[in-house]
Design a protein that fits this description.
This protein is an alpha/beta fold. The protein has a single domain, classed as Rossmann fold, CATH 3.40.50. It contains 13 helices and eight strands. It has an eight-stranded mixed beta sheet with strand order 3-4-2-5-1-6-7-8, sandwiched between helices. Helix 2 crosses helix 12 and helix 7 packs across helix 13. The N and C termini lie far apart (41 Å).
Length: 285
């Protein structure tokens, strides 16, 4: 039962040099924009590039990474805090060696926990930074105090949008709040379900222009993912689209986004570790 966790522990011990994960929060202004599907397929493409990736499913009450992968998780966040499980016991392994931690409905109680439990979380999280290149926080729609703590402590933000006016408006509102709290935090925008890549890029450029004009914020326009009938099929079959059909238009577009991201490495110089920034947020609140 513990073979998987033991292998993950051994991965840490085998590291010859300290590894510092890049932490990335995945956000959207509203639900239903394909945020979890986007981060899942993005992470799988990173895995193909020999990157070590962990998805931390923090979509409160609606965590679905394990469902999208067609897997049943043995543990979720509530187990971690109630049973003080080692963080590596929480990790499940999906396709291509992709690691993920399943979400749970009780996660919103994190900031109500006592100091000892918070310190336990911090100490266990520190182990993850030595095991992975990228840690993605898949956050729910909206901006609770809990999700904002993760966002502001991250190295950069992925903002997932769709062409619908409500998604654009809500995405702008979410970005406005982030910029208010930390103007220097890098924001990387992706336009999902675009009528075409050209149209998606045009809308993304318009969104970036508005952000620059009214928020004095330069965002990174990573690119667009076209609407593709393979996406709902992949959700139904619980198989990520980059695995279900590699030559699909959306799969090709996803590979281009990942290549662009890796070549650009869009984040600025990091100002403190995730844990340091998370603690700072708690203190000022």
């Amino acid at each position: 039962m513990h073979d998987q966790a033991e292998r993950l522990r051994q991965r840490v011990n085998e590291e010859k040099a300290p590894r510092t994960s890049k932490t990335i929060s995945i956000v959207s202004g509203k639900g239903g924009v394909g945020k979890s599907t986007t981060v899942l397929n993005f992470a799988l493409e990173l895995q193909k590039k020999k990157k070590r990736v962990l998805i931390f499913d923090l979509d409160i009450g609606m965590g679905n990474i394990d469902i999208l992968l067609g897997q049943q998780s043995k543990h979720h966040i509530l187990n971690f805090f109630e049973e003080f499980l080692p963080i590596h016991d929480m990790i499940e392994v999906g396709p291509n060696g992709l690691s993920y931690i399943a979400g749970g409905t009780a996660f919103d109680r994190l900031l109500e926990l006592d100091e000892n439990k918070l310190e336990y979380f911090f100490s266990q999280y520190e182990l993850l930074t030595k095991s992975y290149d990228y840690i993605f926080f898949d956050l729910g729609a909206g901006m609770s105090k809990t999700s904002l703590a993760f966002i502001l402590a991250s190295d950069e933000i992925f903002l997932v949008l769709t062409p619908e006016p409500t998604s654009i408006a809500d995405g702008y509102s979410a970005m406005k709040q982030i910029v208010k709290e930390n103007p220097s935090l890098p924001i990387i925008a992706v336009m999902n379900r675009s009528p075409s890549i050209r149209e998606g890029d045009r809308m993304l450029a318009k969104f970036a222009s508005v952000a620059n004009q009214f928020l004095q914020k330069d965002i990174v326009q990573l690119g667009s993912l076209p609407y593709d009938k393979i996406v709902p099929k992949s959700v139904s079959s619980q198989t990520p689209y980059v695995l279900l059909k590699e030559n699909a238009a959306v799969s090709k577009a996803m590979r281009e986004l990942v290549d662009r991201y890796l070549h650009a490495e869009t984040g600025v110089k990091r100002n403190g570790s995730f844990i340091q920034k998370f603690k700072k947020f708690l203190l000022v609140r």
